Amino acid sequence: MNFRTPISIAKTAHPIDYNSKIISIGSCFAENMAKKFDYFKFQNTTNPFGIIFNSVSIEKIVRRVVEQHFFTESDIFLHNDLWHCYEIHSELSNSNKEELLQSLNQIITATHDYLTHSTHIIITYGTSWIYRNIQSEQIVANCHKVPQKQFTKELLPVSEIENSIQNTVQLIQKLNPDINFIFTVSPVRHIKDGFIENQLSKAHLFSAIHQVLKIHNSQFTTLTYFPSYEIMMDELRDYRFYAEDMLHPNQVAIDFIWKLFIDSNIALESVSVMQEVEEIQKGLNHRSFNPESEQHLKFLSKLHQKIDILKSKFPQFKF
Question: Which residues form the GSCFA domain (predicted)?
Fold first, then answer.
């Protein structure tokens, strides 16, 4: 008997290999996948402006990068002794106003350069629920613990999400017409919005993404979809695959989703290199009971030989 409902995922026509340059943006699940890319030494950069959940905020920050629209004092504000920006995650907030602006604008320049030369972009949408600042009437990426009375909470309609995704694609293609897009919906459930509301939110994302895919596929462009959410909900239909909060995928689930991503989106010739990288990573993480022993010193010597051989083939690798 088969106790699972395996999801069939088509092999992409534009796989990722070790010459690829990947940029990942979006929800916290984007960070989970990016850690895998980093572990296996792919050329990857992730969420340069921090975690962003909704499509409008992703579009807004992409527009800044593509058009090199730099931040000014009018884009930031002081709250709880820190300078913040509603377009970015609070992890980038700073106690010094000038340092914050300088840092954000340096990120714009660096991301513009990286995006120009990227081969793949992975965009992970988390929710259709947004918070709109009442005073500015602008959708924010992060509320920065500003009192909730200063915001209204809204569910973005499918049409607005679709338009936002379409704008994001066009902006990026304007800068880099050859880039490949991989869209996915985060498997993290946002039940603080409510159980029914979470399902509605995800449904709006699915509808919008697939409408954009339908439009672009008819034009033979390189937009694909990876079913992270569907794998979690249908193939890993059990709470043993969740973290303690019962909302986020645990490491077993992340590893399983990553394995399916490898099968569908990583070039076959790169898989053997990934195995070599993992062997080295495990060796580097090994802790000997007797670090000065002859046996351990021989182990380290062989390990560094493997690293040197691999770096001769891939000079960008850093262990």
Answer: 21-261
